[in-house]
Design brief:
The protein is mainly α. It has 2 domains: 238 residues, Growth Hormone, Chain: A (Up-down Bundle), CATH 1.20.1250.20; 49 residues. Helices cover 76% and strands 0% of the residues. It contains 11 helices and no strands. The longest helix has 34 residues. The chain is globular, with a radius of gyration of 20 Å. The N and C termini lie close together (10 Å). 38% of the residues are buried.
């Protein structure tokens, strides 16, 4: 992808696509602000409030459960007549308005009530978030010609990484110098600003051939981001789960002339599924371990997030 992106940079972007490309770049940059602030520190905040492993697990698993229930209805709604870009925008508004509520939780609720409210809000915001996640790729495909997709995706991934690293360090510093829970309110407010600006740039994306474009939901555009989700990393697991369906589909090999290749591919998919399962299974334990056992400060957690994302950028 890097070679293709560099080659594309030497060719002028067609004038009719510049507006859409610019707004897609700004969308991901502001999403990086949201991802590095509110999303990244949500589970840490719940842990500092006294959340149990079960409650942290609900925060992590809730969006996935909602996605399983809502993906098909959301896809059906997106397939109906109407502007896919407008539907994606309104789905983003429905999802991201909830981030503003996080800012005010300490003002009205005790710690246990805040944990319960966070879990409920994450479940509710995942409903429009699923529609946003499903529809964004279709809108991206409609707005970006296929010959420019690797170029746009490469720049988007770089912008996401840069903003994530910078904002992670900023949030860690803010949480270090501001008293609890004011620091988290400021971080959640920063995330809300990122959410609002990201949605505003989504509103300005207007695919040229949208009226005649047929959405193909589920196609990947290579983005590291997963808009609509309330977790930092879902890309690998999402792919592994999607490929897992191939393992269970006996019809996949019925017309194959090389069944030995299909059998080998199934073993590869099984290995990838188990690999990602082992990675994501202890996810709800990490914030508890960082805070309760290692005693890490928020600044150290922010630095860890920045190093992690920087490593992903360098090796992807």
């Amino acid at each position: 992808m890097t070679t293709t992106t560099l080659r594309r940079r030497s060719i002028a972007v067609p004038a009719e696509h510049r507006r859409n490309f610019f707004n897609l770049y700004m969308d991901i940059a502001w999403f990086g602000v949201l991802n590095a602030s509110a999303i990244s520190f949500m589970a840490v905040y719940a842990t500092r409030l006294g959340a149990t492993g079960w409650q942290i697990g609900l925060l992590n698993a809730g969006p996935a459960v909602v996605s399983l229930l809502v993906t098909l209805p959301a896809g059906s709604w997106l397939q109906k007549r109407g502007s896919i870009s407008r539907k994606v925008f309104w789905a983003s508004v429905g999802n991201r308005l909830f981030y503003a509520l996080w800012v005010f939780l300490p003002l009205f609720l005790l710690p246990e009530g805040q944990i319960t409210a966070l879990i409920a809000l994450v479940f509710l915001m995942s409903i429009p978030g699923t529609a946003l996640s499903v529809g964004f790729n279709a809108m991206f495909a409609a707005a970006v010609p296929i010959e420019w997709r690797s170029h746009v995706t490469g720049i988007r991934n770089a912008l996401l990484a840069v903003t994530f690293i910078g904002v992670s360090l900023l949030c860690g510093w803010l949480l270090q110098v501001l008293p609890f829970p004011l620091g988290y309110q400021v971080v959640f407010a920063l995330g809300t600003l990122g959410a609002v600006m990201s949605s505003w740039h989504l509103w300005r994306v207007r695919p040229l051939n949208e009226a005649t474009y047929t959405p193909r939901h589920g196609q990947s555009v290579g983005d590291l981001a997963r808009p609509g989700t309330v977790r930092v990393w879902l890309g690998g697991m999402r792919t592994a789960v999607g490929d897992w369906r191939f393992l269970l589909n006996r019809r996949a090999t019925s017309g194959s002339r090389k069944p030995e290749i299909d059998r080998a591919f199934r073993w590869i998919l099984l290995a990838m599924f188990l690999f990602h399962l082992a990675q994501y299974l202890p996810m709800s334990l990490f914030p508890l371990f960082w805070v309760n056992h290692l005693g890490l400060s928020d600044q150290e957690i922010g630095l860890g997030n920045a190093v992690f994302y920087g490593t992903v950028l360098l090796t992807s």
